[in-house]
Amino acid sequence: MHEMVFHSRQRWWHRNPDRKPYAVRLVRGDHQNYFYPDFVACLSHVPGDTPGVRLIETKENVKDAARKARRTPKGYGKVLFLTKDQSTLKVINDDGSLGMAVDWDDLSPIREWLRTTKPAG
What we know:
Layout: E1 10-15, E2 26-27, E3 34-35, E4 39-43, E5 52-58, H1 62-68, E6 80-85, E7 88-92, E8 98-101, H2 108-116
């Protein structure tokens, strides 16, 4: 996934494996089963901000992303769902539609999305 989305403000990131006892798992929004977001990243949303842990999920099926997005985990904030649309990486909106494109030369819109969707507190 192109080096990771947040290089300048990220502290660390890890691939989150499926079904391991140490992996981050979330209850799906459409039923009580779990899903394991692809990446766990610790980053600052703005300079000087206390770093926080965020979750990123890559999907081919935007309908599945919309179902998973129905529930926001309190400790992590909204999960960032991304999908490849031809040669462009795009954010998947809560309704399953495609949102903004990831511009590798200007990641500020992605950082702003993460800032506005971070956990309260």
